[in-house]
Amino acid sequence: MKSRLKSRNMSLRPFHLAFPVDDLAAARAFYGGVMGCDEGRSSDEWIDFDFFGHQIVAHLAPGEAGDRASNHVDGHGVPVPHFGIVLRMEDWEALAERLKAAGTDFAIEPTIRFKGQPGEQATMFFRDPAGNALEMKAFASDDMLFAT
């Protein structure tokens, strides 16, 4: 079944994701400093970030952050839940270097997953200071995003 949005030929719109953190200063340092996301509006309880053109909002909710399970994918335990973005390969490579330089503790080191198969992709998993899991990925061709 084709997506109704795709069939309408609409352009991709920014998504919005609100997620829990236990320390706004640590979230600001990580998303703004390490990840390089511009900060938008904020209060004493939340911060908006420009996450590669999408709006993510870190909400102060101590004890609610972090992954709760993992699934086996191509030889790795993938944290669930997680969120992230599909980058262009050169942007993914630059971010991987930036995260390594910042001393990021990767849950799954930058790697190529599904080598030689449909959907081959560069991927990396890491956690923010609150324990939320993120996945950053890239494809040699965006046509492979939904390859079966």
TrEMBL record:
<dbReference type="InterPro" id="IPR004360">
    <property type="entry name" value="Glyas_Fos-R_dOase_dom"/>
</dbReference>
<protein>
    <recommendedName>
        <fullName>VOC domain-containing protein</fullName>
    </recommendedName>
</protein>
<feature type="domain" description="VOC">
    <location>
        <begin position="13"/>
        <end position="139"/>
    </location>
</feature>
<dbReference type="Pfam" id="PF00903">
    <property type="entry name" value="Glyoxalase"/>
</dbReference>
<dbReference type="InterPro" id="IPR029068">
    <property type="entry name" value="Glyas_Bleomycin-R_OHBP_Dase"/>
</dbReference>
<dbReference type="InterPro" id="IPR037523">
    <property type="entry name" value="VOC_core"/>
</dbReference>
